[in-house]
Specification:
Order of helices and strands: HHEEHEE
Number of domains: 1
Number of strands: 4
Strand content: 5-15%
Radius of gyration: 13 Å
Mean pLDDT: 86
Low-confidence stretches: none
Number of helices: 3
């Protein structure tokens, strides 16, 4: 479980760095890695507590905001982020 929380902390650091030099590939990669933790309460094959899942949802929301702020849109049919048209 500590590993999962460590990953989340690392993602937050990377997200903070992304605010200075936006790296869309990295932010989308982080988004896809965190998404299952929020949506199904599981990270790296380990079940999360509700509190941990809620924290991952907060991380997911921040990553989504960063993508939107930098010209990316959620493409529902493919369940992926793409540059807005």
């Amino acid at each position: 479980m500590k590993t999962s929380l460590g990953i989340a902390a690392g993602i937050m650091v990377l997200w903070a760095q992304a605010a200075f030099a936006f790296d869309a590939a990295k932010v989308t990669q982080d988004y896809y890695r965190v998404r299952p933790a929020c949506r199904i309460g599981e990270m790296n094959g380990q079940e999360l507590t509700q509190k941990q899942a809620n924290e991952q949802c907060k991380v997911l929301a921040k990553l989504g905001k960063a993508l939107k702020a930098n010209g990316y849109c959620w493409y529902k049919p493919e369940q992926e982020w793409r540059q807005c048209k």
